[in-house]
Amino acid sequence: MSNSTTATIETEEIVESYSLLNTFGKVIKKESLKNASIYILEKAKSIVFACIGLTIFCGFWSLLSYYTKDSLPGPTVTLKVLYEMLSDPFYDYGPNDKGIGLQLFVSIKTVLLGFSLGSLFAIPFGILIGASSFFKKVFYPIVQFLKPVSPLAWFPIGLVVFKDTGMATIFIVFITSLWSTLINTSFGVSTIPQDHKNVAKAFGFSKWRYLTKVVFPYTLPHIITGLRLSISVAWLVIVAGEMLSGGAGIGFFVWDSWNALSLEKVISAIIIIGFVGIIFDGFFTMIENKVSYKA
Amino acid sequence: MSYLEIKDLEISFPTPKGKYIAVRDINLSIRKGEIISIIGHSGCGKSTIMNAIGGMLTPTGGSVVLDNKNIKGPGPDRGIVFQNYSLLPWLTVENNIFQAVDSVMDCSKAEKHEIVIKNLKMVNLFQHKDKLPGQLSGGMKQRVAIARAFAINPGVLLMDEPFGALDALTKGSMQLEVLKLWNLNNREKTIVMITHDIEEALFLSDRIVVLHNGPASTIREIVTVNLPRPRNKIEIVKTPEYIELRDHLLHLLTDHFSIEDMGVTYKN
Ligand SMILES: Nc1ncnc2c1ncn2[C@@H]1O[C@H](COP(=O)(O)OP(=O)(O)O)[C@@H](O)[C@H]1O
Ligand SMILES: [Mg+2]
């Protein structure tokens, strides 16, 4: 359903720009060439600025490493270790010695599984709470009560229920993924303008038509924002969760490296975790931009 | 009993300061095929009355009866053109109309698409059918809303300031389209429209309902327009009957709005 909505909006944009291109031909081409060069210049600028920030950051890092007499490894040593890790990411020498790629794969799989399950629950439930003041009165207090609880507190409950650490980790990601999506979705649904509701009422839309042609398209940008926030927190939580559950995953890798006193590996893992976080966020930001419409 | 009967209609809204009575004591009998205009100052309750006929609002007093049935909600027998277009911004022009047709009409998909295309052509928007409402001007949006209401082929057309956002030329041709449609259907479609425009009301209507100012607005007068049809827009304005009616309506609508009434004194 989400795919089809995205697709229509996409084609709209394409059709529009295509007809513009036809009408104005050369003018547009010149304009777009100019726009492209401006765009590249802007991108280059922002990369330069990011590099300045990175240099300052590495400077402080080196300084800190220097003052701790290298018990905190500096950037060069760390990057060397990171390079080694990345050059052979998929080795598997038994349960306690796996390549970073395999560990990352486990974590991402857990996050995506828990996140998907959580979203599958949170989106319909959010729609329900947003659409009905009765459901809102009944369930919203529980949501507000449970939302600030650290997801890690759910770990023992997951263990008791599922009797399996892997499942318990998925469970805490599931719980984590609920709140932002649920709250954003219900907010979206509850703010559907009266005008849109009037259309559905005046032309006798069925429940299904109302859901798919009014509620869902209107709420979609809110849902995507919720999903983006949810997956960010889920990715935060998975690292801590795997430290608790042990066995596999990037969190376990951090903990294991710390026990092996390899801070280079710990810091390398932190860098990788950050990158994956950026990718998740970027992915949903991209969808967010795609589904937003002009009123 | 007449086709559309409004009896002792009262509509009030609950507000934080208590009950706000928008309109009361509204009595109006409309024949099948009549064109009625409701005219009055902004905020006097025109939209409120229309929403009661459309079934979008439940009367707090009195009743609205259409074809011997008490109106309890919206229905396919009435097509509404809302004051603020009310298009769905994520659907193309074509799809906005199609969703309404698909929801209301009982025919094959191909026939439904045919209906949509026919109505798009009627309002001259066929070449814009793939655009989103956000890419249209106000007047174009209004025409989509009109096409959507026409497309479901209702017995009663309810139009809330349908030509308000249109330029004079488009407005003229849309008015003719409405009359054309009305004639094509053997003048059997009942049309209730709201307008601010006295000339428009006189050109289109059989009767004009003039409202008092709110709150608790009532009907001030119902003016019968006995001008023969078809009316020629250029010729009609020269007739003494037209001039008399226009002056009368102008008087009804403006007599409380002399400069003295507004507390302005003129010093020499
Ligand atoms: N939902 C509502 N709640 C409270 N007051 C309303 C509501 N709808 C309309 N009104 C009030 O009723 C009066 C008539 O409104 P309306 O029928 O929209 O006027 P108009 O003649 O301009 O169409 C106005 O004073 C308006 O503020
Ligand atoms: Mg109004």
Give a quick precis of the structure.
The complex is a heterodimer of chains A (295) and B (268). Chain A has 295 residues and is mainly alpha-helical. Chain A contains 11 helices and no strands.
Largest interface: A-B, 24 and 29 residues
Broad CATH class of the largest domain in chain A: Mainly Alpha
Distinct ligands, ions and cofactors found in the model: adenosine-5'-diphosphate, magnesium ion
Can you tell me the CATH architecture of the largest domain in chain A?
Answer: Orthogonal Bundle
Query: What would CATH call the architecture of the domain at 1-72 and 194-268 in chain B?
Result: 3-Layer(aba) Sandwich
Class by SSE composition of chain B: alpha/beta
Using the alpha-carbon principal axes, give the shape of chain A: globular
Which sequence of SSEs, written as H and E, runs from N to C of chain B? EEEHEEEHHHEHEHEEHH
Contiguous low-pLDDT stretches of chain B (5 residues minimum) are none
**What's the helix count of chain B?**
8
Keywords:
heterodimer; A: 295 residues; mainly alpha; MetI-like fold; disordered N terminus; B: 268 residues; alpha/beta; Rossmann fold; 6-stranded mixed sheet; 4-stranded antiparallel sheet; 8 helices; 24% strand; binds adenosine-5'-diphosphate; binds magnesium ion
